[in-house]
Amino acid sequence: MWMTSKDLLSQSFKLRQAQSKSRWNQPASTLHNLILTVPNSSCMYECGDVSDQGITREREYNAEKIWHEVIRRSLSHPEELLILDSRGRTPLQAACASKAPINVVRILLTSGKKPDDEHSIQSMLLRTDNHGRTALVLAIANHGSLAVVQYLINRCPKASEIRDSAENLPLHVACMGDFDNDRNLIVQNLVKVYRRGAGEFSRSGKTPLHLAIECGGSLDVIRTLVDAHPASLTVKSCGESPLTAAIKSYSEPNVIECLVRGEPSVLEQVDDNGLTPLHHAIAYRSSVLVVDVLSKSIACISASNKQGDTPVHMAIKDRIRPYDVVAVLLQKSHSVVNCRNKAGDDPLDLVYKRLLKHLRQSRNDVNEASLWKTLTILLKSHIYGALSRHSLVEEEGNNVFHMMVQTNVPFQIAEKALVRFPTSLQEMDSKQCLPIFHMVSSDASDRDEIATMMLEQYPGSTKVKDGNDDLLLTKAAHFSKISPKLLKDIIAANPDALAVAGSKDGLFPFMLAATPKPIVSRLEHAFQKHFVEWGFCQGQQQQLDSIYTLLREGPHLISPLL
User: Is residue 15 domain-resident?
Assistant: First the structure.
């Protein structure tokens, strides 16, 4: 039967792979052959049922027998100690790669040598295999015992300075992989022998501190590396600082705090995208404790990325837990509520947009509850400034609606808020004002619609005076942007208000509507300047409409003046 070209290629590949594997594992001496027969150490310490434990004990017994045979062979044939296998390893290196016990390593290193032949011992320990790895590196990389690694370091401290083909020092290798008590002590011993290694880079540009953080090194290891080379805290040769690596690796808060305490300036360090460590912590949803540590610098809280988003903006965009993070940040810097990103949104705008999305999708879940809590603390910070821990409560009853109507709140959210706080329309705030008084004097886009809804639900608000002893019509007339329809509704609810003069200047509502109004925005100023030759602009037209409406509803007020 003829074989296809695909079958021939597959068979050829398998043959070459088998030949390569056989050449790779081909022992160069009887010692190498014995070491290769040691049971796989990674399977010897697995915990399972009773049968698995019996297999483990059998493997341990077989391994012990083989290591005894290795010792006997090395003593009787010391000439095999210098033979290299296909990987370029001596029996000592092969044994270190197979997690040999300390007594085996001692015999393989000293067998056939005179007690004072230190030069031969040093050359044996400095010898590298085809990948540039010494016996020390092989013992560390293959999780050799602490006794073996410490013995190799003590016999040849110079080996801790030799790099392998990947440009890794033994300290780099020790900072990779899983950390346990033995690995922590190995790192500390390597730092004592070669302190400068804590600041050296691998081929990827990472220091031992980077690697230890990425692999979950303990706090003791991190402190040891930071104390040995503090400058490594600001290193970004691999594209990120150790602090950023710790955030992305979800390190414990005490590790983050250790890095910040070692070099506080790293909090304000930005990457190529303009992101600070605080930005990264929020993006990776680090714990609130980590966010608290990273927000010690006020400049970090107001720092913006390439999109103009501050950490507060990013926290609000988080689908899971906007409130927890925003509460921590606003306690430290309340001015960030006024920061706008490049899209023109401040934190309040983002919360309103997210709530609108939830309302349109008819969703009532945990995220919406968190957004309402976030809105509450943003309103407090916007209206009252700095927040204390005591003031961070879920909601302060009807006061939330009073604060909301002083911002650019959308109609749907104001309507939802009235459902949550139905009695808020009839309650005064600390300034002795009803919510509708704040609404008619605001610049909200949906001001007229919201004020009309509030007036329909509580018509009696037109007869209530504020803290300045003024009625609602007086307040509305003073603000020229109120629509004529809303003015008519206010007058219809309380016609007598047309003849009530203001408490400060004694002017009637139509007189207040005729007083000059300040230009409230740069856009309006540019608009008026552009159309000055026609003597007309939108603001002036609204003012004329307000005057006309008030005069038409109360023409009898002009007769006494004439």
Answer: no
Highest mean pLDDT among 300-314, 367-381, 467-481, 520-534: 300-314
- From the list 273, 272, 264, 266, the residue with the least C-alpha distance to 241 is 266
Q: How does pLDDT run across 33-75, given as a tens digit for each residue? A: 999 998 865 444 344 444 444 557 788 888 899 999 999 999 9
Domain hosting 151: range is 26-158
Within a domain: 323: no
Report CA 332 to chain centroid distance, whole Å.
Answer: 18
pLDDT at 318: 84
Residue with the two structure tokens 């026609």: 534
> At 475, is the pLDDT very low, low, confident or very high (cuts 50, 70, 90)?
confident
With respect to residue 358, please indicate whether it lies within any of the assigned structural domains.
Answer: no
How do residues 491-509 score in pLDDT, each as one tens digit?
888 888 778 877 777 777 7
Q: How far apart are CA 36 and CA 100, in angstroms?
A: 11
Residue 290 lies in a domain: no
Q: Are 498 and 467 in contact (CB under 8 A)?
A: no
One-character DSSP codes across 33-54: HHHHTSPPGGGTT---SHHHHH
* Whether residue 183 is found in the same domain as residue 261: yes
Give the CATH number for residue 534. 1.25.40.20
Sole residue written with tokens 């013992």:
139
Q: Are residues 120 and 193 in the same domain?
A: no
Residue 402 pLDDT more than 90? no
**In the chain, what is the straight-line distance between the N-terminal and C-terminal CA atoms, in Å?**
121
| In a shared domain, residues 448 and 531 | yes
Please identify, among 269, 285, 318, the residue that sits at the C-terminal boundary of a domain: 269
450 phi/psi in degrees, rounded to 5: -70, -45
Other C-beta atoms closer than 10 Å to the C-beta of 521 total 10
Q: How far apart are CA 359 and CA 413, in angstroms?
A: 8
Tell me how many domains the chain contains.
3
Residue 536 shares a structural domain with residue 401: yes
What is the mean predicted confidence (pLDDT) over 320-343? 88
Q: Which residue, 200, 100, 115, 199, is CA-closest to 152?
A: 100
**503 three-state secondary structure:** coil
d(CA 186, CA 149): 7
Are 132 and 211 contained in the same domain? no
Residue 225 · residue 191 · CB < 8 Å = yes
**Assigned token pair, 232:** 């490594």
Tens digit of each residue's pLDDT (9 = 90 or more) over 540-559: 555 556 665 665 666 666 65
- Let me know whether 112 and 253 are in one domain: no
- Looking at residues 275-297, what average pLDDT do you find? 93
The answer to whether the beta carbons of residues 370 and 322 sit under 8 Å apart is yes
**Judgement on whether residues 551 and 408 belong to the same structural domain of the protein:** yes
Decide: pTM greater than 0.90: no
